[in-house]
Amino acid sequence: KLFFTDYGNAAKVERCDMDGMNRTWIVDSKIEQPTALALDLINKYVYWLDIYLESVEVVDYQGRRRQTITKGRQVRHLCGLAVFENYLYTINSDNLSILRINRYNGTDVQALARLDNAKEIRVYQKRTQAAVRSHACEVDPYGMPGGCSHICLLSSSYKARTCRCRTGFILGSDGRSCK
């Protein structure tokens, strides 16, 4: 799945399949300017930062069990969001410090370090990487991902895929080659 935020005409948090199909709103009320998103892949939670409402909130992948983690003026200066173990990590754009926040109750806020011009944060750790299984976009014997001549996108499951073409090309009638 692909998770993303939008704060155009109607602010929301959405998800869809990697090929853009099955687009679903998971948060569309009491939300104004969601600017950062983080996923708890193990427990299937979506965290987001709303700088207009000055809040950090969480829902499950279906948009249920919504909770506010923290709220207040200090959220106004946050950008970027990552989750790892018991904490959320974010950047305070006012003083460029990396903050660690308890993700269960919003307490235990701690500045960890200061970085110049930081706008985004990611946590890379072996335990956060999903186990790779065979999938529909694996390279075939001819070196083509999922048998697609240009781009292979996973669809509704790891067994299904959709082929797409780079800009300027059109997908052929076989659904795999680009012309």
UniProtKB/TrEMBL annotation:
Segments annotated as LDL-receptor class B repeats: 1-43
Domain of life the protein comes from: Eukaryota
Record-annotated membrane-spanning stretches: none
Example GO molecular function: Wnt receptor activity
SMART domains given in the database record: LY (SM00135)
Example of a GO cellular component annotation carried by this entry: plasma membrane
InterPro entries on file: 6-blade_b-propeller_TolB-like, Cueball_EGF_LRP_Nidogen, LDLR_classB_rpt
Single GO biological process annotation from the record: canonical Wnt signaling pathway
Entry-linked PANTHER family: EGF-LIKE DOMAIN-CONTAINING PROTEIN, VITELLOGENIN RECEPTOR-LIKE PROTEIN-RELATED-RELATED
Protein name per UniProt: LRP1B protein
Native source species: Edolisoma coerulescens
Species classification: Eukaryota, Metazoa, Chordata, Craniata, Vertebrata
Gene behind the chain: Lrp1b_1
